[in-house]
């Protein structure tokens, strides 16, 4: 046999041959069964058929050469080990045939138990069990049921009905009241159902049962629900599943037998303790199917103390070995414990932090590893406001948590109504069956979005996540009737204007307004919870891991902030400066009038007057921000958007002018405005007169801003503070643009700063592809670069975010053209390449050139890793994202040496 195996591809592994690192080949279940076997834990013997065999089967439509022989050989050695032969009429070996892919896909694929039973071996099984006929016939009827349903596509309900019928005949609701004769009758009924649907008798040949079951598991990889699940969870479609053939152990042999599932700690909160369910006298599938009520695992201590103690010992052993939370499946056969499955268990965001902290305390992992095991997406989840559910709020429906957050508001069914009510200051929840691009305005106006159809990649979900808006999608219990403006759910009818609450993390929907509160983690970042002095495992764990991340990271984290209040909050969240201070909002509100004067100025004098009036206002803005960021750098971007954005919209203006003219009023000023708006109208404002272009066209505009910045810095310094302004020129594409602005700015700065000791840097955004490609030249005139990855993405791809996210991104995601929106996570291959080129060529021309990023990508976990790797000095993001960026920058720094996360 050994000689044969050297020439032929190995498709079958005994449990003793595998280990936990072979998940690609053996699937998660097989790899971990092997690991437990090698740890000496009581695992029923068996073998695993590899994912490669599955892939070969799925591509060619038949079992690969050699597979049948290898199965035969492994089966023989299993039979030798067990001292029984598969399906032997007198003393049968029975096996289970279990799917198991690399990533767990709960309930998506197939498992068949009790393979090897037939009309003759059922008698042998009874004898094996000391004449327990009831058990033998129960096992046989289960085989026909599972085999029929999963291997031969017999509708499962037919078996369910026959079972219900048998119970009704017996006058009971409990499976356990059916005796051996009842079950024998049921087997006959099942066989008829089988024959009716398949046109053949239930196969009596054990090896045929085995082969058909293996093939069915292979094929279940491509079952519709499995395909959908993979798409949803972004699991690659070409991995295939392994098949585990495991000798059966029986939990249904009587009250001293049973089956259960357990977690080594609470996967919800991370708390230590025993979390599990146990069901006496049952086979494994009964627990999952919820047919009978389980009892808490603790009660096993009374039923079978020996097995219970052994189980706790094994759970401790597994945790120590895997150094993580594990979940397990086990069965007790007449007082003997068997382990049937384990894996590193899924957990909530809160539990991830708490468990990582505990494992450090227990000495099982170090802080680097703890940092590795949590991520920014989890931290972000923990920062969303939460519903305060301590009162009796019961959800009326549950959909998919498509975009996290907690939102309450009045129900509306159309985009137009959402916009109307929102304009009146109402909070609204937009409820639709599904959304489409026409709903975009309504989605923007709404506090939250609720749909009855669609998954995590539906239009609603994608757009909501892009906007950071709470969304529950696919709440299919909802009957949404848009024309009638109602939806019904769980016997309630909800109409327009009724208040509901939706939780975008859990997917739950509530009637009425559920109060919200800031999360504890935000309270901690805000400084109102002291981690050293409160008894809160989550806050303590977050504190500890964040502290470690801050120590490990190389990237600095700044914030995007335009006001003193934002700056102050971001600083509490750990921001180390401002990476983007936009100045445009400083031109709105009661300053609009000055801006209008500036735009309408007919001569140099008028324009200078308007600018002179704006100067002190701008200076005051900057003083406030510099004070808040005392001692830290503040990058101020000179005015960026096109000027007409500061004027009233064309239509409105035209109507006003017409009405006023009708009334014979003096409209000279409005007419001038209207003419200016017409003159400045652009077909493509994104690509029009904005940024540095504006500064070069309107004399004195940038000069006024530069003066305001320099004067503010000097004023702060005079008061004993320390301002570190960095003036950033937007939308530069050519070094000459920057040189022109720089020459003027330097003169003003020199004049204002004098000997105050204030230092002002001048740099540029890199957001036009041409700037990235000529970065070597531009660096000659720039002391820093800040990548504006929003515009760089727009111009790199040639689409504008506002126009495309609602219009076709959902389709691109569906087709897999993007795995994720390039506005959410930087497109490393394309746009990222521009960043890389600019960073390298910029630094080559000017060593020590400061490099940062100020697009929204600065707070996106994957993008942060990319920017770390490219070698930027800092990322800048919105205040709420600052902790996420700190955490991910720390993870990026440790993972350059460690393994990958997932
Ligand atoms: P899933 O991946 O859906 O959990 P499993 O392959 O784990 O499917 O099997 C389903 C149920 O059958 C589980 O409860 C499992 O413990 C039980 N089971 C599987 N193999 C055996 C076996 N050899 N003996 C007893 N019970 C088994
Ligand atoms: Mg299982
Ligand atoms: Mg920009």
Q: What does the radius of gyration come to?
A: 34 Å
Strand content: 15-25%
Bound compounds: adenosine-5'-diphosphate, magnesium ion
Shape verdict: elongated
Question: What percent of residues adopt helix (DSSP H or I)?
Answer: 40-55%
| C-alpha termini separation | 39 Å
- Derived from helix and strand composition plus strand pairing, the structural class reads alpha/beta
Detail the poorly predicted runs. 897-902
Task: Determine the number of helices (DSSP H or I, runs of at least 4 residues).
Answer: 37
**Average pLDDT, all residues:** 92
Molecular structure report:
It contains 37 helices and 33 strands. The protein has 902 residues and is α/β, with parallel strands linked by helices. The chain has an 8-stranded mixed sheet. The protein has an 8-stranded parallel β-barrel with strand order 26-27-28-29-30-31-32-33, surrounded by 6 helices. It has a 5-stranded antiparallel sheet with strand order 1-2-7-5-6, sandwiched between helices. It is elongated, with a radius of gyration of 34 Å. Mean pLDDT is 92; it is low at 897-902. α6 (133-152) runs parallel beside α8 and α23 packs antiparallel against α24. Residues 329, 341 line the site of one magnesium ion.
List keywords for this structure.
902 residues, alpha/beta, 8-stranded parallel β-barrel, 37 helices, 46% helix, disordered C terminus, binds adenosine-5'-diphosphate, binds magnesium ion
């Amino acid at each position: 046999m050994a000689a044969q195996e050297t020439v032929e591809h190995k498709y079958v592994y005994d449990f003793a041959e595998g280990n936990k690192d072979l998940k690609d080949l053996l699937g998660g279940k097989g790899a971990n069964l092997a690991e437990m076997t090698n740890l000496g834990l009581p695992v029923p013997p068996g073998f695993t058929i590899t994912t490669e065999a599955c892939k070969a089967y799925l591509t060619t439509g038949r079992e690969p050469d050699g597979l049948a022989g290898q199965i035969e050989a492994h089966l023989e050695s299993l039979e030798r080990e067990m001292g029984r032969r598969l399906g032997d009429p007198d003393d049968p070996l029975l096996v289970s045939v279990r799917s198991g892919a690399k990533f767990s896909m709960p309930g998506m694929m197939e498992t068949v138990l009790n393979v090897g039973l037939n009309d003759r071996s059922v008698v042998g099984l009874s004898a094996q069990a000391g004449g327990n006929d009831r058990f033998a016939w129960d096992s046989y009827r289960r085989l026909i049921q599972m085999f029929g349903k999963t291997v031969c596509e017999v509708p499962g309900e037919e078996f369910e009905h026959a079972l219900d019928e048998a119970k009704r005949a017996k006058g009971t609701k409990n499976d356990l009241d059916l005796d051996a004769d009842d079950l024998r009758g049921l087997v006959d009924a099942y066989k008829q159902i089988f024959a009716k649907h398949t046109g053949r008798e239930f196969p009596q040949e054990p090896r045929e049962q085995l082969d058909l079951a293996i093939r069915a598991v292979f094929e279940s990889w491509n079952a519709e629900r499995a395909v959908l699940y993979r798409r949803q969870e972004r699991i690659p479609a070409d991995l295939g599943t392994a098949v585990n053939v495991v000798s059966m152990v029986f939990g249904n042999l009587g009250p001293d037998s049973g089956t259960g599932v357990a977690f080594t700690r609470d996967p919800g909160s991370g708390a230590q303790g025993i979390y599990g369910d146990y069901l006496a006298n049952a086979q494994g599938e009964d627990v999952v199917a919820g047919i009978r009520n389980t009892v808490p695992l603790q009660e096993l201590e009374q039923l079978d103390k020996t097995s219970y103690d052994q189980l706790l010992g094994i759970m401790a052993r597994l945790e120590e070995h895997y150094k993580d939370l594990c979940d397990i499946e086990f069965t007790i056969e007449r007082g003997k414990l068997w382990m049937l499955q384990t894996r590193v268990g899924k957990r909530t965001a809160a539990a991830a932090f708490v468990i990582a902290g505990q494992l450090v305390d227990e000495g099982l992992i170090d802080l680097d590893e703890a940092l590795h095991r949590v991520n920014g997406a989890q931290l972000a989840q923990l920062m969303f406001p939460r519903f305060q559910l301590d009162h009796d709020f019961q959800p009326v429906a549950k959909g998919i948590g498509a975009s996290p957050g907690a939102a309450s508001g009045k129900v509306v069914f159309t985009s137009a109504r959402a916009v109307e009510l929102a304009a009146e200051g109402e909070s609204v929840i937009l409820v639709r069956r599904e959304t489409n691009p026409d709903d975009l305005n309504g989605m923007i106006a709404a506090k939250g979005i609720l749909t009855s159809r669609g998954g995590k990649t539906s239009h609603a979900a994608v757009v909501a996540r892009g906007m950071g808006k709470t969304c529950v999608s696919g709440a299919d219990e909802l009957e949404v009737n848009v024309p009638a403006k109602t939806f019904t759910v769980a016997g309630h009818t909800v109409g327009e204007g009724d208040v509901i609450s939706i939780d975008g993390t859990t997917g739950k929907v509530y009637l009425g307004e559920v109060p919200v509160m800031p999360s504890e983690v935000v309270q901690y970042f805000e400084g109102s919870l002291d981690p050293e002095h409160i008894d809160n495992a989550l806050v303590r764990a977050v504190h500890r891991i964040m502290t470690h991340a801050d120590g490990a990271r190389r990237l600095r984290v700044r914030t995007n902030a335009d006001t003193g209040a934002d700056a102050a909050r971001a600083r509490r969240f750990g921001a180390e400066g401002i990476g983007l201070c936009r100045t445009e909002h400083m031109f709105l509100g009661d300053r609009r009038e000055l801006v209008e004067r500036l735009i309408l100025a007919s001569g140099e004098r008028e324009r200078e007057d308007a600018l002179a009036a704006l100067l002190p206002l701008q200076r005051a803005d900057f003083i406030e921000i510099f004070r808040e960021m005392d001692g830290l750098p503040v990058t101020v971007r000179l005015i960026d958007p096109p000027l007409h954005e500061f004027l009233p919209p064309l239509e409105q203006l035209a109507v006003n002018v017409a009405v006023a003219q009708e009334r014979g009023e003096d409209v000279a000023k409005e007419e001038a405005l209207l003419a200016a708006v017409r003159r400045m109208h652009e077909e493509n404002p994104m690509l029009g007169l904005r940024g540095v272009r504006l500064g070069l066209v309107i004399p004195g505009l940038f000069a006024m801003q530069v003066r305001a910045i320099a004067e503010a810095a000097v004023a702060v310094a005079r008061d004993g503070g320390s301002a570190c302004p960095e003036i950033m020129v937007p939308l530069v594409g050519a070094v000459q643009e920057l040189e022109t602005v720089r020459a003027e700015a330097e003169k003003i700065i020199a004049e204002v700063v004098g000997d105050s000791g204030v230092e002002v840097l001048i740099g540029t955004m890199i957001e036009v592809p041409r700037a990235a490609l000529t970065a070597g030249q531009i660096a000659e005139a720039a002391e820093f670069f800040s990548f504006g990855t929003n515009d760089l993405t727009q111009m790199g791809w040639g689409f504008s975010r506002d126009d495309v996210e609602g219009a076709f991104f959902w389709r691109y995601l569906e087709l897999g053209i993007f795995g994720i929106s390039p506005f959410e996570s930087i497109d490393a291959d394309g746009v990222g390449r521009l960043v890389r080129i600019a960073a390298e060529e910029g630094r080559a021309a000017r060593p020590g050139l400061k490099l940062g990023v100020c697009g929204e990508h600065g707070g996106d976990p994957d993008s942060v890793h990319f920017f770390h790797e490219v070698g930027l000095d800092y990322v800048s993001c919105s205040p709420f994202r600052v902790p996420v960026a700190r955490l991910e920058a720390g993870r990026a720094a440790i993972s350059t040496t460690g393994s990958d996360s997932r």
